[in-house]
Amino acid sequence: MTARLVVLAAGPGVTIQDAGRRGYSRWGVTGCGPMDPAAFQLANRALGNDPQATAIEISAAGLEVTAEGGALDLALVGGAFDVRLDDRRLPSAVALRLEPGARLSVRAGASGAWCYLAVAGSIDLPPVLGSHATHTRSGLGGLDGRGLKPGDRLAILGSRRVIEAASAIDTGVLGEARGPIRVVLGPQDDHFSADQIDAFLGRDWRLSPRSDRMAHALEGEPLTHARGHDIVSDAVAHGAIQVPGSGLPFVLMADRQPTGGYPKIATVIGADLGRMAQIRPGESVRFRAVTLDEAVAARRRMVEGLARPVRLSPVVRETFTAADLLGLNLVSGMVDAQTPHPGERSDGE
Hints:
By secondary structure, this protein is an alpha+beta fold. Helix content is 13%, strand content 30%.
């Protein structure tokens, strides 16, 4: 029987994603793919998968799954989510075995907006334009172009056993979580005066609740344009920061449109796309300009880090319920309390 991953609960924004739908932007087809590409790759690499293999992207709304027809080895990487296997709490970045009937729940935790659930094997779905990536606005990819919902059963082909015990995944290769988001200015920074560029870099911006996979909308004091807010539409990149007529920037994310007609004051560097994605609505963000050489060097360090073997550390259990203790053999031997040990005095001696 083919093992399946069964969805017990899923909030909005939980979708199937792979590395993205490439080569179709010229026809107006959005690329999609993961909001946090590095976390997505690390989850796959922890199981020995192709780094671009299909996985589940989990939003802060959460997901609960079980296995049927056989155990499944899984890896979870992303924000600091609350992860539990049945009633046992696990690290937010973890590789584990999910036995049939056991329940893995992933809920919003201390920080972060997205995480990725990879499986040792392949999710059996038909590709659309060469990809499994889900674009819910157009209904392309994934499961009929929609998010996951309770009752969905994902068949796992070629499931493999690679995890002996639950293990924490070292996420150091994802970089620091603090500090300003690094950007390269342009390509239309000439549409803004020097004082407005300084304002963009010097202000705290707040992520709007209107943000989604298409764009992160920023709130704060509006910027002003020096040369108008319309340009001839041109291609946009993941991380491009448009400034429309309102003066409030949009950071274009995984489901971005292929082209846009607003000037782009800056672009988030590739190494910081994951950090940008993990900001929650209501949280603040600042930007820092770096050179193109610095952006390339940061990207190279991340790529090289992700190419190294993934470091796993066995999870040490810190808490036990009474039921857990009753199920353990805590006796290592027996002692006859009436018989003195050699060298000990008996009563009356």
